Amino acid sequence: MSLVTIASVSKSHAAQHLFSDVGLMISAGRRIAIVGPNGAGKTTLLELITGEQEPDVGTITRARDTVIGYLRQEVAETRGRSVLAEVLAGAGEVSGIERRMRHIETELEDAADEEELAELMDEYGRLQHRFEALGGYGLESEARRILAGLGFADADMERDMGEFSGGWMMRVALARLLLQNPDVLLLDEPTNHLDLASVEWLQGFLAVYAGAIVLVSHDRDFINEVANRVVELHDGRATEYVGDYADFVEQRTERMAQLEAAAKNQQRKIAHTQAFIDRFRYKASKARQVQSRVKALEKLDRVASPGARARSVKFRFPEPPRSGRTVITLSDVEKRYGDNVVYDGTLDLQLERGQRVALIGPNGAGKSTLLKILAGVLPFEGGTRELGSNVRVAYFAQHQIDALNPENTVFNELNDSAPMMSTTDMRKLLGAFLFSGSTVDKQVGVLSGGEQTRLALAKLLADPANLLCLDEPTNHLDIQSRDVLEDALNAFSGTIVLITHDRYLIRSVANTIIEVNDGAATVYPGDFEYYAAKRGVDIETRGAVEGARSTPRGVVTQAPKPRESSSVAADRKRREAEARNARHRRTRDLRSTMTKIEAESIEVERELAEITERLSDPDLYADAVLVKQLVERHNTLRDRSERIGPELEDVRRELSAAEEPQMVRSE
Q1: Apex CA 502: angle with CA 336 and CA 530, to 5°?
Q2: 640-666: per-residue pLDDT in tens?
Q3: CA-based nearest residue to 497, from 472, 518, 526, 528
Q4: DSSP secondary structure code for residue 560 in this structure
Q5: Residues β-bridged to residue 70
Q6: Which of 151-155, 242-246, 483-487 has the lowest mean pLDDT?
Q7: Are 523 and 557 in contact (CB under 8 A)?
Q8: Quick check: helix, strand or coil at residue 103?
Q9: Rounded CA gap, 244 and 233, in Å?
């Protein structure tokens, strides 16, 4: 059954048109990822689902008693109660249900007849079922489990909300929503304020979530793990694809090629017809044929060419000065915050030119502290920090937006930090981060938080430093901008140290992993897959720091380099690609059938809603013939609606079986 049905919806904001004719069916078990460039209307679509905004055209139907929960990108600051109390407060429905159950228990004692008793028992049973579904009998223990999964220690759960940063408040808001257990869970960039371990935990939680999930995310790995549908908002249209993000990319490429071919074929036919019209327009004997072709062209349903997608902007860092081989050395570092000792004076670390390091580890282990010490922006109590020859350091963190001048224009803000760049290169860089045309003349003070983050990152990329220290650089970046950053980092000739929850970025960029845990930094001189293999961690299904072995505090250990040869790697990738292609061929027809049935279901639900609304109009019943026709059509649609569900389930089962890995005979 559809919990929310979106039919033929269009939406604009002032003069900005977002999308037209959007159709989408949200049902239990469906996990839909909404992707697209910034400004395409992804957050607006979520707010249409909640009812906070209304569509300009079309209808949004919500099933009766459907509970919708929404995690926004930003949350208001809260203080005055503990973290645990804040999360439990989100279960207001549970508390209300419990109170009503207590009232019914009292009423049962005074029930006067069997009919009243039966009504009370029916309501009590319904409430009890809902109470159990919402976890009412183990609410506090479930709240503590969720908070622990999101990185909160036991002691943190009793601390006042006002003691936490905005990122931690966002985690509390997420915990509160997950405890609420809504029928439809809407998540807008849920991983932005999570570390790697918390992202992994959230994936596991959502994998067994019984309701529907609609999420906006630019984290490709997260989408791959959570979603079974991808809806792309692009050029004012919404296109739905069955599968995860990898399936979406493959299917979209195929669809674009088909549309392009169809558009070109139609254009050839149009040109041929137009040539006939132009040739014989004034010849009397051909007048009827000419008019026939003119009318045919006027009625023709044109196939729109997808055209060239927004060209990916490629940006390279300005060539930094060459540093010495040893870039930075930390010796016997001691760092503490009051009584909290992060590094006890035994931390030693040395980085060399060309290393691209990802710092990973559990929340609170000291990753950001280590990065700030390396960047030289945080003092420490003991030990030494020594830069190598000719080393220049640049540091990026989310609070960098506070350093922007709100009176500057976007262009002037970048210009102040990039005196060596040409105007063309500055505009190219700003375009890579979605500042183009007149937007480069906007004042920094009127930019959104996401826009300010992108501008701060652009300023960093313009600085020819040779040691980059980056703390969550991909937050608020869409996938196109993340690709720009990834390409630039891979082409960078200097040294990089980064903290990110984006595993795709880690795999693409890092050639060294440093695990930070319990005051120790353990170096793994290989990529993320190599680290996972050495640590015995399945990075596809488990947390990246799960089961970490204990190491002496401050000790840095080295593991041997990975040994897979290039020929073996190439053969492995070829076999993996062949397996993906085979799976796609097996499932292509089934996916097409499912898409058609789902489209029909959306149309049936839309027409049903329209007829139901018309039948509720008392004036209609003056026309008995029309009423009879509408009732017959309503019954036909209702019967079809009831049959669609089982048909969809049959196709889903076939698709699930077809997607199972096939046995491959070894040579």
Answers
A1: 85
A2: 888 887 888 788 778 777 765 544 333
A3: 472
A4: P
A5: 186
A6: 483-487
A7: yes
A8: helix
A9: 16
Whether the Cβ atoms of residue 525 and residue 354 lie closer than 8 Å to each other: no
Q: How far apart are CA 561 and CA 552, in angstroms?
A: 22
Distance CA 642, CA 638 (A): 6
Contact call for residues 244 and 230 (beta carbons, < 8 A): yes
Q: Which of 626, 362, 619 is nearest to 515 (CA)?
A: 362
Q: How many C-beta atoms surround the C-beta of residue 336 within 10 A?
A: 15
- Whether the predicted pLDDT of 544 surpasses 50: no
pLDDT at 614: 81
545 contact partners, CB below 8 Å, separation of at least 6: 196, 197, 360, 361, 362, 515, 517
Structure tokens at 31: 């996990």
Q: How confident is the model at residue 186 (pLDDT cuts 50, 70, 90)?
A: very high
- Does pTM surpass 0.70? no
Please tell me the distance from the alpha carbon of residue 487 to that of residue 501, in angstroms, as a whole number.
Answer: 18
**What does 444-502 look like in DSSP terms, one character per residue?**
GGGS-HHHHHHHHHHHHHHS--SEEEEESTTTT--HHHHHHHHHHHHH--SEEEEE-S-
- Grouping H, G, I as helix, E, B as strand and the rest as coil, residue 384 is strand
Q: What is the DSSP string of 303-324?
A: -----PPPPPPP--PPPPPPPP
Judge contact between 445 and 407, C-beta under 8 A.
Answer: yes
CB 472 within 8 A of CB 416: no
Question: Cα separation of 328 and 487, whole Å?
Answer: 24
Instruction: Give me the count of residues in the chain.
Output: 667
**Residue whose structure tokens are 């919404």:** 238
54 contacts: CB under 8 Å, gap ≥ 6: 48
Cβ distance 22 to 44 under 8 Å? no
C-alpha distance from residue 450 to each of 5, 165, 398, 434 (Å): 30, 18, 10, 11
As given in the structure block, the two tokens for residue 375 are 């960047």
Task: Tell me how far apart the alpha carbons of residues 486 and 315 are, in angstroms, rounded to a whole number.
Answer: 10
231 close to 34: Cβ distance less than 8 angstroms? yes
- Amino acid letter, 159: R
* Residue 599: HSE in the Cβ half-sphere, 13 Å Cα cutoff: 13
Q: What Rg value do the Cα atoms of the chain yield, rounded?
A: 29
Matching residue, tokens 């063309």: 424
Helix, strand or coil for residue 663?
coil
How far apart, in Å, do the first and last CA atoms of the chain sit?
A: 47
Enter the tokens of residue 216.
Answer: 């906006």
Say if strands 495-499 and 467-471 run parallel, antiparallel, or are unpaired: parallel
> Contact at 8 Å (CB) between 17 and 44?
no
